[in-house]
Amino acid sequence: MPILSLCCNREISARVFELCRASPPHFPNSPNWFIGVTGPSQSMRVRRLAMLLSGLEPHLSNSVELEQYSTDGDLAARWLTDIAAFGDLSEGCTVADLGAGNGVLGLGALAMGAGRAILVEADEAACDVANSNAESMGFADSVEVIQATLGSDPVDLSSADVVISNPPWGRQTPRADRPFLEAMIVAATPTHLLHSAEATHIQPLFEDVGWSAEGYGEADFALPAAYSHHSRQRGRTRAAFWRLAPP
């Protein structure tokens, strides 16, 4: 089965499983701390990537207004492995990460062999953290951090081969995800989206403009205390993973 458990679409689950079994992600030009000199198993590579991403400097502001909730290193590593299994994360490709936060997804893609990452983030402090993390990983020359508010500021994503995003879900501000979803449609390239498992608008929104929308997995997702029913405790919710492809 895919790295992400409890898939909500059995057909997609089976396809990703076959891709992983037949050709597990392995990029020979990736840094040795990811693939290992002797070519460790896929599970070992995922664990190494998870450890690396978990060690990144976090972005701690967690603004309620911006609905900032970070993708943890373990989930990011497993999700990126599934994206690679679909064939959308290939060696040398350009990845755009919308709502990048500390850069965990874009930098993880670089660690898996992507050639360039475009990190789009509205929060200036988060941009500083993403730049710092890129430098600490040795990817400063491969990363472009763009401070921009989608829907208000123009952002050129025409060079992206794949878009990855964990956008605001609209829990605090209704339709907060719309500028992100609209930017994906304008980019017109395969996109992988993490969103609330309760969201019902993703598939019809993209299918209405001729895209395919396939939900291929779900996972528990940690929410900061500000979004939890318990003001002093982190909460958990269910996240769904989508592959969105233009016509």
TrEMBL record:
InterPro entries: DNA_methylase_N6_adenine_CS (IPR002052), rRNA_MeTrfase/Polyamine_Synth (IPR051720), SAM-dependent_MTases_sf (IPR029063), Small_mtfrase_dom (IPR007848). GO terms for biological process: methylation. Keywords: Methyltransferase, Transferase. One of its GO terms (molecular function) is S-adenosylmethionine-dependent methyltransferase activity. The keyword tRNA-binding does not apply. Residues 93-188 form the Methyltransferase small domain. It comes from the Archaea. Belongs to the methyltransferase superfamily. PrmA family. This is Methyltransferase-like protein 5.
